[in-house]
Amino acid sequence: MSNGLSSLNKWLQDTIFKPLEDKKMPVMEHLVELQVRLTRAVIITAVVFVGTFFYADMLVKWLRIPLQNMFMPSSLSWVPTDLPTVPFVFLAPAEALWQNVKVAGLFALVAVTPYILLEVWHFVVPGLHAQERRFVGPFVLLSTVAFYAGVGFSFFFVLPFALNFLVSYGVNAGFIPQISIAQYVGFALWFLMVFGLIFEVPLAITLMAKLGWVDAPFLRRYRKWALLGSFIFAAILTPTPDPFNQCLMALPMYLFYEVGILSAGFFNKKKPVPEGAAVPAVATAAAGNGKVPSMGLPNVGEGDYVGVPTDRRR
Predict the structure, then answer these.
(1) How far are the Cα atoms of 6, 22, 29, 31, 33 from residue 26, in angstroms, in the given order?
(2) How confident is the model at residue 283, as a pLDDT?
(3) Angle formed by the axes of helices 201-210 and 243-267, nearest 10°
(4) DSSP notation for 230-253
(5) What confidence tens digit (pLDDT) does each residue in 70-101 have?
(6) How many CA atoms lie within 13 A of 98 on its CB side?
(7) Residue 27 confidence class, pLDDT cut points 50, 70, 90
């Protein structure tokens, strides 16, 4: 087993990491390479945007699914809720077109994110050491997977629950639901993006622990502040000011903080013990022969004992 792992590691070093090592390129060549990679990323994003804009109406329909449906994990299907039909309206002439452009652009950006990260990897990796490359590569991959997992979790579970609660509250209060397409699209996309970032919290804490910035005892000591900060950030990030959505964002954020504590305890960077922290040689020698060291006082020998002075007037 160990021979197989060593062979795999050697193969990765010879075929992937070593060809990417820095060739000591001049600054201008680095800038030219950056320009080329940015141009590629922009062109690919533009091409994908054309395709997503062609299907923008269908993407908006998908985005409307969580409004009046709940996802059932047991049957892996959407079940309609008891809400009445909620019509969408637009309040400006270009509102519907602009929302299609916004949805198509964000879907295109999410779709080409792996390619953009690949371009960033090829640009950054020549300046990294072998140990850093072995850590940064999996970290970027896990970050991408965590972001997509957060978006999916929000779309299938959190967003339907939040929308059903808010619309039901308005209907029970006697109001007729009519939602602006711009308000709904902004609410849904912001919710999805924020939950994608929330799922990055454990990885961010792990990275800080790996760099030696924080450790598990430090994070445990500031648990109360982390809980308070979660609610403050949730109050800033929620698209609506109601406390319900604030709790929906704050509680998972704090939960992932606890997961980050466990991860930090496992991946914490071991700090080297400085040489000055060791027991001084003088004290060690004194402990070995049972004598108190002189602490650098002059002319204090083996037989020079200094007693407690007495008052001669007594």
Answers:
(1) 35, 11, 5, 9, 11
(2) 47
(3) 30
(4) HHHHHHHH-SS--HHHHHHHHHHH
(5) 998 888 889 998 888 888 888 888 888 898 99
(6) 11
(7) low
